[in-house]
Amino acid sequence: MIYVTGDTHGDLNRFKHPMFRKIKKRDILIICGDFGFIWDGDANPKEKRVLKWLGKRRYEVLFVDGVHENFAELEKYEVENWNGGKTRKISGKLRQLIRGHVFDLGGKKVLAFGGGQYQAKQEDFDLASQSLSKHDYKIDYIVSHEPPTQLTELLTAKSGAENDNLSYFLDEISRKTDYKRWFFGRHHINKVVASKYFALFDNVISTEYDPATKK
Questions:
Q1: How far, in whole angstroms, is CA 33 from its chain's centroid?
Q2: Is 38 within the bounds of a domain?
Q3: Does residue 174 fall inside a structural domain?
Q4: Residue 108, number of CB atoms within 10 A of its CB
Q5: Residue 134 falls inside a structural domain
Q6: How many domains does the chain have?
Q7: For the whole model, what pTM was predicted?
């Protein structure tokens, strides 16, 4: 089973919360950006111990990047192919899902698109479009840090697009892609919109979560 949660910002206590106990062996947890545990690199032995601990969880720990990451340190990790896309293997079962790739996770097709307007580039947009095209723009889930513009408008009560290339691109793939659900972490709230869009922060839910029964 695939589970999703919001920004962790380097807070190890999040992983010790009772909600995480429902994640079983061979399950998958995806973090929607601002992972935050990779910051000082080799200069911080404690950081290395924490990453090793996360990589030893009974489940896979995957994350898309957010806007509050040390990208210079993150990019020191080697890129490798994994489950249909490119990742950075951090430690054990801990990996970064590189933006723009579609992954086969437990038989589900998942587009990963981390970063914000200052991180995502045209080459990332092109890669995501190519990845989606290979699947005829039909996948199961989208996991990102930022949401499409209409979701930002609904959640912040601000009208009008943010007028950046990332917003335009996310709106475009929202229109063109046949997907079941979209999960994102930017707004630091736990809220379901129209049973298809899931804003997450400190909640942990299954990708099959039913808002009606809350299971």
A1: 5
A2: yes
A3: yes
A4: 16
A5: yes
A6: 1
A7: 0.96
CB contact at 8 A, 139 and 109: yes
* 213 in a structural domain: no
Sign of CA dihedral 201, 204, 208, 210: negative
Three-state DSSP class for residue 46: helix
| CA separation for the pair 95, 124 (Å, rounded) | 19
Structure tokens at 19: 């909600």
Range of the domain at 122: 2-206
Inter-residue contact 112 to 99 (CB < 8 Å): yes
Task: Round to whole Å and give the CA distance between 91 and 85.
Answer: 18
Contact 181, 164 (CB under 8 A): no
**173: helix, coil or strand?**
helix
- For the stretch 117-170, pLDDT in tens is 999 999 999 999 999 999 999 999 999 999 998 888 788 766 555 668 998 999
Q: Distance between CA atoms of 205 and 181, rounded to whole angstroms?
A: 12
Specify the amino acid at residue 164. D
Domain containing residue 28: CATH number: 3.60.21
Residue 31 near residue 7, CB atoms below 8 Å: yes
What is the per-residue pLDDT across 7-20, written as a single tens digit (0 to 9) for each?
A: 999 999 999 999 99
Which residues have a Cβ under 8 Å from the Cβ of 147 and sit 6 or more positions away? 155, 170, 182, 184, 186, 187, 197, 199
According to DSSP, residue 39 is labeled S
